Batch of 4 targets.
Target 1
Amino acid sequence: MSDFLSANAGILIAVIKVLVVVLLLLTGVAYITWFERKVVAHMQARWGPERVGPHGLLQPLADGAKFLFKEDPTPAGIDRFVYFLAPFLALSLSLSSIAVIPLGPGQIEIFGQRTWLSISELNISLLVVFAITALSVYGVALAGWASNSKYPLLGGLRSSAQMLSYELSLTMSVVGIVLMTNTFSLRDIVEDQRGGMLHWFVWPQIIGFVCFFVSALAETNRVPFDLPEAETELVAGFHTEYASFKFAMFFMAEYAAMVTVSFMVSVLFFGGYYSPFPNTPGFHWTWYLPAAGAAIGGVLLLLHGLRYHTAFGRVVLPVLGLVLIGAGTVCALPAVIEFVQGPFWLVAKVVAVLFVYVWTRGTLPRFRYDQLMNFGWKFLLPLSLANVLVTSAIVAFVAPR
Amino acid sequence: MSAETILFFVLAAAALGGAVNLIAQTHPIHSALSLIVVMVALAGIYLLLGAELLAAVQIIVYAGAIMVLFVFIIMLLNAGEEERTQISRAATWIGVPFAVILTALLGWRIWLSQAPVYAGPGVEMVRATRELSKMLFTSYVFPFELTSILILVAILGAVVLAKRDF
């Protein structure tokens, strides 16, 4: 057994990493829908999901079951192969870019082999993410075309035009960072930002950050750029003719793309897995922040859960609170305290970015189509190009690296 | 057989199959999809050869940008299925022999060549990118700029055609 393990350790580790990350990502995607509905509801003075489980916590499960058991009608006159291909393409592409994102510093040891904290370590990971983003247009465009219906076709056309236009400024907005770091590797970009929040690239690349964030909103078809599925004009856009689990795949693809973009924002501009505090003895106490956060959250959840108005909630919420307190205690142990820093700060930043995403959705109205195109081509693209020019001038003449 | 050899044959089969399918399909969208398969398979072969930058650029530019435009235009024009027609006389007497001769010549040269094909990682990526950019902006700057002017002229031509009132 141990011979087998050591001979195939590389493959085994890869499989374990893929399973862990994909399972976490899919669970995360399910609960982001809950998070989004809750946050938007509270912004609009509503309650959001409340019925299924305490605070609607089981709502994602119920939604999943609903999608699985719904009738799945196939419209007449469709292009069968492309119609079935499109949702697979959309979901698999948007799940795959997480593979190159560095999730923590340094290497860990499994089965006597040292391995990086990411599914795959590439020199061109930044380009890989853009390549996958570039391909993800197909899922939407082909779904719209294959459905043999006018609203999906219009939605598909709109979205391909939109994604093509905003991809330019999305790519241009990170050229500044590549110029500053001399690398296409996401891990090297994060390593260049170590030493606290003053070293984050969001400060020197603030224009690049704005361009990236706005283009990413458009690229993932989120409000205010969700024209491909503008209900009032296009029913549900490209996925009008999709039902049941194929619709769920598009849904999951959209949220997975959102998660990926949040990871990219954190990695490129906010120091990735590095803590916002410098790693000096004076700031050693910040190592206890993950533990303290989990413990305080756990205590609050415990106290709140004991007074919850349903019997089920009075059991589940305190148990969750206790689990959080336990996790907090474990995070304070000297053996793991250094290890948890990276993933904790990365996830914290990703959740913060996701919150801003949801906040945008709760705040802004949708663009009109011509406004969208004008904004992309006449404002964002020139701005990101100017950012590239200024950054390269500074790198070349003022602060050569 | 090593994993790389197996991967190479899988990718080569995908590329050739996609290319044949591209011609065999009657619907433009299916042909475009086959072309995307060819391009992605080629990118995989570049990766096997250790040309990571080339692979990424292949996918971003060809599969991602150019083919999206192709698909977009096909969708926009709502192009339907093509009709099969008899092969033209010019193609029978000039096209087919030329294609056969060209393939035979290429195959003969490849068969004769002894140069080993480099496979696997090794060339440092950052250096490779830098060398490529240096060559592009020094030795090859004239053809590079000429190509960009050519593309610009083509775009201007397309805009003029689109703006013309019929």
Target 2
Amino acid sequence: MLLIHIVPAAGGVVLSLKNLNTFTFSKLFGAPWTGLRNYRELLFDGASPLRAGFMDALRNTAIYTSVTVAGTIGGGLGVALLLNRPVRGARALRTLALTPWIVPTFVVATLWQFMWQSDVGIVDKLLVDWTHVLHHRPVWLLGGNTIWAIVVPSVWRGLPFSMLLCFAGLRAIPSELYEAAAIDGAGAWQRFRAITLPLLRPLLAIQLLFLVIYTAYQFVIPNVMLGSDPGPHADLLMTLIVRTSFQNNLVGVGAAASTLLVLGMAVWVGVWLLAFRRDLEAPA
Amino acid sequence: MTRLAVSDRRRRRLGSAALDALAYVVVAVLFAPVLLLVVSSLQTDGRLASGTYDLLHPTFAAFRDMWRSVAFGHYLVNSAIICTAAATLATAFASTAGYALARFRFPGSRPFSLTVVATQLLPGSMFLLPVFLGFIWLKDNTPVQLFDTRIGMVLVYTAFFTPVSIFLMRSFFAGIPRELEEAALVDGCTRFGALRRIVLRAAAPGLIATFAYAFLFAWDELLFVTALTQSHAETIPIGIRNFIGNYNGKYAQLMAAGVVSTLPVMVAFFATQRWLVKGLTAGAVKA
């Protein structure tokens, strides 16, 4: 396992320092060194089209990740709270709510691509033809809306799993705490603030850590829904890296972008540790 | 005073009914796209385009035609073989490593655990390029054929899903009382015999759950299969993507293909749900 994960990853860093493209491809690791030129081109070369594309992808990934993660965890907690009440048919409701998570990601992308179509898609039919909320048909799969076209399905698929975890967390909270708080006259909101949130904090923190990483590495949804080039409003770092490396054969640049993405995630893990270290050490 | 109490109770009951209704609405909205997927696969393209869904007269034409539009059977067979093999191998490796981590303190057990976590932090693209280049190099220079072969994909997926599987198996093993094994040892079992006869049997739900986990995620993988295959070992995600690229507008067939791709994992999930959900939530709740 070490061999398959760590050695190639180190190989990736090495490649990022090389001038590897169509012409030098046959030499692989024997390609000429270029030092940090790939990085400089991505980050600082204002005239380079590579930098413009990288900056777009960086911005989109930041937006996509933050909105998706917030929607997933917030929505998951909300639905878990709703279904943790004694509703009639709660078990069946939970199973139904969980199904989006079992639909494979590439089917999710396919399904939503169909739903977003402006002529035959259900979203525009619903908004324009059936309810007349809007009077013109929004275009979802082209231009500025594309970022939302990938955010919404991502939340839709991720939310049920977050709900599942939150639900397990809620179940672990002893009901005596709520009863005692209710006797002391605490309202529903106060009970949520003072009991539920603090006790769920470690669970939410773990979700936050892994979900941010998982979301920042998203590739399938934009790739299947929008093609190998999702356009300047929805191109994520992963789609950019794969396109640069495998279609444009700029393997060195792709490897440099990968390394930057990992560095970004390392910074995120550091920030996360600073914020939530106490929760990790707290007894379960 | 009494009237106030009654109205208070009524207000609470109204609030509770409102929350119930909200729960039903939210679940309906969450489930609606899944329903749409199934319903659309049973319509003709014409009905989908006009938005006049006919629920009473479903047609299975899309399920018949999809196999001819792209070589869907080819992709399905590849997916089934690759994912089953990779999930089996990952579960086998993970059960031995997970057992060791749960039972023994060996030098380096802590760094080993940390490395397992660290592998999850690396994006696929980081080792995708070197693996790709390595496969190409092997193809050109040795008789070892991994590029665009099922064996190559099995190897990659096994490596990919073993780390999390180790964590799942460790938590399952940790939940089995040591006394069971010790009793077997006292009764004259060897350490390995105890593992085989007692522990693995007790951990069977864990093995099933881990297998299902690896299978579900391998089924969903697109990035590596895009780069590491060309025509022989392509799996369902590629098939679906080709569908979108080449037959845009044939939405009924596309949705039918989506239903067919979802069914195996749906079955795998619901068959193992009890153990899988427990395994996945136990780790997160404890951590």
Target 3
Amino acid sequence: MSPLRGAAVMVEKELLELRRSPVLLLSMISLPITIVLMPLGLYAWLMRAAPEQAVDFLRDLYGIAGEGGKAAALAALLAKNWLPMFLVLPIFLPILIAAQSVGGERERRTLEPLLATPVTTLEIILGKSVAAVVPSVLLTWIAAAIFCGGIDALALPHLPPGSPAPLPDGSWLFATGVLSPLLALFGNAIAVVLGSVVADPRAAQNLAGMTVVPLLGALVAQLAGRVSLGWRFYFALALAALVADIALVALAARLFDREKLLTRWR
Amino acid sequence: MPAIEATGLAKSYAGRRALWDLSFSVERGEVFGLLGPNGAGKTTTLRILAGLISPDAGRAQVAGCEVRPGSPAGAALRGKIGLLTEQPGFYDRLTARENLVVFGKLQGLTAHEADARASRLLSRFLLAPHAARPFAVLSRGMKQKLAIARALLHEPEIILLDEPTVGLDPEATREVRALVGELAAEKRTLVLCTHHLDEVERLCARAAFVAGRLLAVHDVQKMAHGAHRVRLELDSPLDGALALLRGLPFVRAATPERAQTLLLELAGRAHAPDALAALVASGARVLSAVPVRDPLEEAYLALLGQARSEGLIS
């Protein structure tokens, strides 16, 4: 059996299980829905209720000039400030899947029959990783597309005719196109590593979930007007994620020791 | 060349010895029993033979593949082994058929082959009406039958069965034993790991008694078809009875045990009424006639006693 075929069977199995897990699916979908609807609702309300006051407030807080009118100013603010939430998504979503998929195999006693097949360690890790990363990145892209489309739909009627759509700008394209997959790999690798060393899959999931805290901290700091996350930050984050991904994948491959996984929690 | 040839296998977990100096061989087409109490190292032995873990010492040839310390056997060995694990271990949300197909594909079968073999095994094991039901809702017996079906999916050279009837109700136990019996009748190479003596007696040609190390290997069928022993208690002198019994052609031995009891060894169970009738006809008064435990049980308990006295098991 070629390595890709074994991994493909693992992906097929993982996705089939995911499709049959309504609670997991609901938790995966609810986060992007909240992240998309909340700012769009706020934007729509601000544009209708108190656009002038909102722009004044934003000008004071963030120093946004408001060129191009109130709609462009608000759209730019939301685009800038809400972007980190779309980076939390690709980390968090694979953790939901991957922590359960490694620790869950052990908990449901499916690990021994799985390891008794000719499928290799690499195929198992690869299959589980693809099944966790691909849906997470796709969901992030769909959520980002809806968010950008929503902002544009709400902003464009208030912008001068012929104005370009505010989103996606360069930051958004880089963040979703480059950074999201790297962060999804990071979330998945963290979950695989913790799922391999922590006996309880829920504990592994909770621990892995803690990795989004620094990013949430950056988001809060930006919302409070303390920092301004720009190109340099996202580029540095991408580099850091790339290095972490390589290190974590190597660590995961070492920790995913078939014999230890079977006998450690006897 | 034997299907399995294990020599001096040893394994420890975190400094605790689970298995040491275990040697035995299993011929092709033989049903071999691994008997022993809980914690005797039976599952560890099966895991080594299945290529799931590597031994700390010793080596084994399994289906032509080498198992050695420090180098876990590769995919080639795992593809030749059908392993029934102690717990069925399937994916709860997948149906019985989907589970079989997934494991078939993981064994290297094409989608079409996996589906066809799953259908055939589901029918054979009377699981076809439950094929579309999620694994989680199947009864314990159905789950175990499905697990046996999985062990056969890729038509392995050797089938390793770890406690196939543990935790099953009497009806499911009977069904699973019948299935294992069918496999044995097909002359497949089977290693049956259990602590149910009747399973071993019914299915196995030979059995190894294990308690950390190998205590003995017995020819089960020879034992089962050997002498039938009856303990007799008489209310009359033994001398006359012993002389009479020793003169009967089907009596192998008659041995006094206590003042009024003797142990009678017959050529077969069918001769017990004849021996008793001859005694009664001679005027002897028989107070009781109790069959002695079957030889396998006797041997098992004796070996357990030996293992306890040697500190091999607690």
Target 4
Amino acid sequence: MTRIKQIYRRLHWLVAAVSLALVCSPASSRAGDDPDKRRDLMARIDDKVDDLVDELERLPGDSSERPIDNAHALANEIKRLCDELEDVAGDDTDAKRIADQYPDDLDELFDVEDDLRALKRGQNHAQPEATQCQERERVLVRQAEEFEAKNDPDGLTELPKLAAQVQDETKRAIDEVHRDDDRLEDAKEEAEDYAADGGLREVDSAIGTAGRQMYAAGHKSEEAAEKACENLLKGVEHPEVKEALAKIGSSAGGRKAVMDQLRNDLRTLASTIASVSEDSGTGTLERAKSLVGELERGLDTLGRTATADRETKAMLEKWPEGVKQIKAALAALERLKVHQHELDALPDKCKQREQELDDAISKNGDDSDGIEEIPRLAEELAVPVRVGLDKARERLREEERDLAQARDVSVSEGPWSDVKTAQQRDAEETFRTFEDALKKTDSACEHVVKGKASPKAKNAEERLRQRAGSSGDQLDKDVLAWIDRARATYTLDCNGMKDMWQAYCREDWEPADDSPKDRAARTADGIKSRMRAAIDPVLADVEALEARVKTLADKRETKARGAELQKVLAKHKGRLTKLASNDVWRGNYDVVLQFSNTYGKQQHESLYGSKGCTVPTASTREAIFPSEGQAHFKPDCVNPNACQVWEFKPDSPTGHEDGIEQKDAYEYLVPLYYNKRRLANEPASDALGGSDIMTILKERCMSGGEIKLDVKVHEYSMCKSSYECVSGD
Amino acid sequence: MTEREALGVAFSVLGGARDCGAVADAIVGFCDASGLTFELLTMNTGGGVRQRKFLPKKLRGYVEDPKSWTLRLRSEARICSTLQAYLRDWKPLDDYETRFVSRWVCVGSDELPLAIEGPVLEFIEAMVRLYPVAHGAVGGYRALRYALHEFTNHANVMLTELDDETALRLSFDNRNHTEYREKLLRLYPVTIIGSAIWSKLPPLPPLEQPPIVSDLGDCKMLTCWPTLCEPRDPAFLRGTRALREWLWPYTIQNPADHVDNDPPAPP
């Protein structure tokens, strides 16, 4: 910092302090208002800030990071002085501002310390790469000169390899240098973003300047490295290499060596491709790709030789096309290879899931809860399998396309015939592995995928139903009847639904009444009280049942069955006891929630039927679109005939807000999904309408070259028509 | 309750705000200056609706939260003055994906005068500065629900509250939202045209009543009618027929807006 600035700043404080003394001297004895100490502290802070700026200014030219450490220590010292100043600031606005603002600004200085250190370390960051390039350059040129001096035909194959290898290494090194430069630029911008004003404005400016200077030095070292590596990045076009190759290649011996190597590489390529399918990894495929690279380089070398002999010309005429074809075919083979064993583990997974269902059925025994639990579990187990199988079938269609591309090699002259045969055979084998695995998966998952409709789940459910319904055992029947009564106590029946509906919707309430929400809450409380009152008599009856079950459990021959019944009774008794003693019924027991869930479900079913929906495929199913990062991806209805997407919502404030958010999401992801399918010329997944929906959408909803859909939210009234119960509800 | 005429201001924007914090400041400034009050702040976060009591001093914090995509300010009443602003994309989108996103910044209110002046003008200027605007519009509507439906995503949420003609017209708009980036919706009494669309327009034809074209940031503001009215107002349609014909190729070409569908002139 210049001396003039320091003097100016001190004068500024002096004037402020003298003015303050003149205006405020009578109050100077007030607590927290010590002008002498305040003046002293402010002057000391000012000095430290000057020192801090000095440290930052000398950072770019220093040989170490020590100025940053010094600046850190000074910043801490200033913060400590600010704490002291706060106690004696009194009404002095300058002192208060310093005490208040400086610590925050200095904390932010700590935040940019790492950036300053990175910039300091990066001032010569590309120097090692520049040195390495000089060394590589020396080695490569020496090699080129040696081959050229001996007119050694090996140079025609070895030099391009060496040049390519050096090119690759250099490219990686230079890429890393560029990444370092990007990181340093970010650090510079962070340093420039540091902002402070008032007395710390000089600090702000010094940080920015230091950051820019250090970055400029680093960037200069990057430019020097780029220059040193320039020729190496040209690979085989390196001037010295190119010249040596031209000289060696113009001799007959040189050409022969290159052509022999090319034939050799082609033979190796044929045998390598033949093993791709059986390789458990992708090593063989990589080797094949690398051989194709060798062939390309060899042909390039041969192409640079000045010759008119027939054999060379023939090779240069036909082989490049072969290389082009095999390159494209290998790319397709690689895609086949990537997915080749993808399904191998799935059959076992399906067996495991089937076993899981078996175990659950066996564990459930004769518990009537299984009537609900087993189908639910079967569905739960089926969902991922269905998704997986859908994806696998989708992949199979892609595999068929990839197979066609992988087989698409037509060049078959001479040694290319073996390559063509190997490529086509191996592509088929690789494809076949996937196809066979899909067949095995289909077979192994045959039952699991059916979910609750699988024979095992259905049989178990049927058996439990029969046992529950028509077993001759009176005790079983009595226990089941008791469980039904227990469930009825906490389940909102039709009359409860009606009461709740009336609470929300009746209009003949007195003017002094509160809102529908309050009325509903009060009605729900009333219903809950009725429900709770009904619990006690049900609980009272359980004791007699328990005694009868105990008798059963005490007998050796009926012990197992008795124990099961005891378990079932204990579970339901525990649930009832808890509900009887809890004032608040939460979750699925909450009466208001039961009402809105049941009402919503009924409305959804009714609207699904009236809106011409084809997706989801049934009102009880869900249409799950790829989420594309959105939280909502399950619209209630897609009607392709009307180019319409629907979301059904209750006409409540939360329903309204949710509806708007869902509309936003579906507007984005539903047309996007069908348009992506259209562009890929693929059907939608079965759950989202399959090929049928695509046909209708393309026929009816295309406009301006894309499928367009209108997304609407249907807000169903909670009070549209009166809620009536009929006998049997 | 008697319905009052309402002002509708809207922008279709090409992306998120350039500075979300400044958007918050502009909204708070607009509320202060216009006297418009909101009770509820609703943020769409993708993970659900996050609703808070609207406290102006906290708006900046919510808006700067990278999880917030859209904000909506309203009150408890079902139909009430509403301000909605798209803030940012929820993930990086490629060119194709971005077509499917509707991005709006809009205000509908029956508590503001039907004029572009004072706080309303300042708000419009701020939004043009803070967003990459594709196009925008200002109109006056017979009732607040019409102003809200014209642009905001309330559209089609409560379609039964509109007459059939408007509902049908807005349905078409909605279905063609993938074209909002490149095309205007239609001519409004005041139509704001972003630089990309403006650069494609041919010169204005000679007109009996040419619009007033003024610069608004890097957009152009076409004042086409002396009063703020609805875009299907019969007098407005009669007075702007040639202008609408000129603009037609650069709109989403909603059949309802075609000059052949203009209402018959009064006898």
